[in-house]
Fold this protein.
Amino acid sequence: MTVDVLFPYYGDVELMKRAVLSVLRQTYTDFRLIVVDDGYPDESIPGWFASLNDPRVSYERNEHNLGANANYRKCVDRATHDLMVMMGADDIMLPNHLEWLVTRAEEHPEATIFQPGVVVIDQNGASGRGLVDTLKDVYRPRGSGVRVLSGEPLAISLLRGNWMYFPSLGWRVSAVKRTGFRQGYDVVQDLCLALDVVMGGGSLLLDDEFAFMYRRFSGSDSSVRALSGTRFGEERRFFETMGDEMAALGWERAARVARLHLSSRLHAGALLPRAVLRGNKEGTRNFMDHLVR
């Protein structure tokens, strides 16, 4: 079973190289690494990929920067096999990741999304767990070992707090192509894709086996957006849309959770004092707006 490892790239070159090498060191070797460079300004990158001299690796560079959402969609267009991973360009696959994914996919043909255990690291490779990851632990469904979740209970769980680590997820390609990344989202496109798959009848396999290292650092795109508060307008629009769509399915509890979007509002509340202390008027205004609306 060939796995398509999709690699939308824009960012730190050295971290990108470590991420690529972690894919090439997988114990499961039947994969394609499909790199789509969104025009990162470093002319050494194409030559570095050519020097790998690995037929499993393909590299292309966008002539113009497409942005995260459009580049994600372009990567999905390149997937042709049954399973895929949308790899983060600064994360690390543990050597067992693809073997874990293929094994679980064969054991559970009913599962559509696959979430392994994740180790969180910082930009230096040290433990990077903080408040966000502590809250993910709180929101993650209880239990141990392998469990498969679906339907409204899964939607409610994800809407209460997004406990997934998107770059670590395995996906059935057919479900992702059928749904696709919705245009207009650059912060919550991962959660939106998962919920679209769930609303379409898909299920998520959750496992405790560690297979991935997720890098969290202050310079990430999501962190910059969080500090200015600009991300919360998108989040509010997203949750309002989910509330309407959940209600249309008859998932009234999920609709209420989406409309409340408590964890998102608490996130804004946690950032508000920092914005006030720094005199960040834009951030203060955006945080307050998200809290009260």
User: Anything to note?
Assistant: The chain has a mean pLDDT of 92.
